[in-house]
Design a protein that fits this description.
It contains 16 helices and 17 strands. By secondary structure, it is of the alpha/beta class. The chain has a 6-stranded mixed β-sheet, with helices on both faces.
Length: about 425
């Protein structure tokens, strides 16, 4: 079973709007056993829409389309669908009644543009939209199901959940597709692929391995496809066990768990607390830790020691250490971590000091250099790392590296 996704809108192509619709639809289709073989984004142009519809027709079982169903002049999807499917627009009075009732309840004035939302292609199946005004539109041609939906995410999801996904479940005998993600850190993609060469070569034919890197974290996605779900689960479990024996020191979580989630769970399980002392990361680590629901159980607070005076006056880093080793040094961050742990009375404290860029570096400490320390009841550990030249990316990489060091310190005790 194959599916394709088409998103319509100039705002997607020029970066004004991030296309989250495709990711969500792709995930839902995949869970039903569809192979999502292509995602296409195109202009709000009649010829572009007609060309792509002709291109995908008959080549997939399902084509999902979002965008261009609004009430303004640049929303041309309905008219173009009429042209492609050789039909015309007519008013659907049930849809019109729904729109009028919605506007009445909200005490909004209606105009002709709003009423035009009730116009639908005569030959389509109308999918009611109780989350908005533009209905979904269902066509079938050349053994392909075409469904056009509004581009507003919550409206699209409503129509998908209410109408489309239940219908697709009925129509298609779903083959099973199982995804499992193994989260790794501490090695480059090419090196990891080299280590896993033997593992990949012996994978059962039903399994595929993909490498998905981001900010130093590499997500290993195992995908199992077939008819026998029980068998797929069995071989998936076997291969995951093999991964744990092959790269045990690199795996920190499964599925979509982040370092901050894993650390939070470990701290809660053990009744421990944590604080941060941040210079170059500017509170990013604290933000990541507190983004997890329930983090108030283990996160005490943070000191943003951007200026050296805060390092000395608040965290207790001596002037001698700063003068001898510099602000970006293992010696300094070790004292920062110990100072934060003492000041905020936590079991763990993590500290960072570095050069995020784009300037501020030198030959001995170039841009991208960061020093990280973690203080705990078993002592203080630190490391010096070097990343790239882009400031925002560096701040993120520094923070993830710091959380990795926290994770190492917690799990080794």
């Amino acid at each position: 079973m194959k599916a394709q996704i088409i998103t319509i809108g100039d705002e997607l192509l020029i970066g004004q709007t991030v296309d989250t619709n495709s990711a969500w639809m792709g995930s839902e289709l995949s869970s039903l056993g569809f192979d999502v073989c292509r995602r296409i984004s195109i202009h709000d142009l009649r010829l572009d829409i007609l060309d792509v519809l002709a291109e995908v027709s008959g080549k997939s079982d399902v084509v999902l389309i979002t965008g261009g169903l609004g009430p303004t002049s640049d929303d041309i999807t309905k008219q173009t669908l009429c042209e492609f499917f050789k039909t015309k627009l007519v008013t659907d009075h049930e849809v019109l009644d729904m729109i009028e009732e919605m506007y009445k309840q909200r005490n909004w004035p209606m105009n002709e543009n709003n009423r035009r939302q009730a116009e639908v292609p005569e030959a389509c199946r109308v999918l009611k939209n109780r989350a908005g005004t533009a209905p979904g539109i269902w066509f079938e041609k050349d053994k392909t199901i075409f469904v056009s939906m509004p581009g507003v995410p919550h409206e699209m999801k409503h129509i998908m959940n209410e109408h489309i996904l239940p219908e697709l479940k009925k129509r298609f005998s779903s083959q099973a597709i199982i995804h499992k993600n193994i989260m790794t850190y501490g090695i480059g993609e090419a090196s990891l692929a080299e280590i896993l060469t033997g593992f990949e070569e012996t994978l059962p034919k039903e399994l595929k391995l993909a490498y998905l890197p981001a900010s130093g974290i590499i997500k290993l996605r195992l995908t199992a496809t077939g008819q026998d779900k029980r068998y797929l689960n069995t071989i998936m479990t076997e291969q995951i066990k093999k991964l744990y024996t092959t790269i045990p020191e690199l795996i920190f979580a499964e599925d979509e768990e982040s370092f901050e989630m894993v650390i939070g769970n470990l701290l809660k399980e053990n009744g421990k607390t944590i604080s941060t002392a941040e210079s170059c990361t500017g509170g990013r680590i604290a933000s990541m830790l507190t983004s997890i629901p329930g983090s108030s159980q283990y996160f005490k607070g943070s000191v943003i020691a951007y200026d050296n005076s805060i390092k000395t006056d608040v965290l207790g880093v001596s002037q001698e250490i700063l003068e001898k080793f510099g602000a970006v040094s293992r010696e300094t961050v070790e004292k920062m971590a110990e100072g934060a742990r003492s000041l905020l009375k936590t079991d763990y404290a993590v500290a960072t000091s570095g050069i995020a860029g784009p300037d501020g570096g030198n030959e001995l400490k170039p841009v991208g250099t960061v020093c990280i320390a973690v203080s705990s009841p078993s002592g203080t550990i630190s490391e010096k790392r070097r990343f790239g030249n882009e400031r925002i990316a560096n701040i993120n990489r520094f923070s993830i590296a710091a959380l990795h060091l926290v994770w190492r310190q917690i799990t080794c005790q």
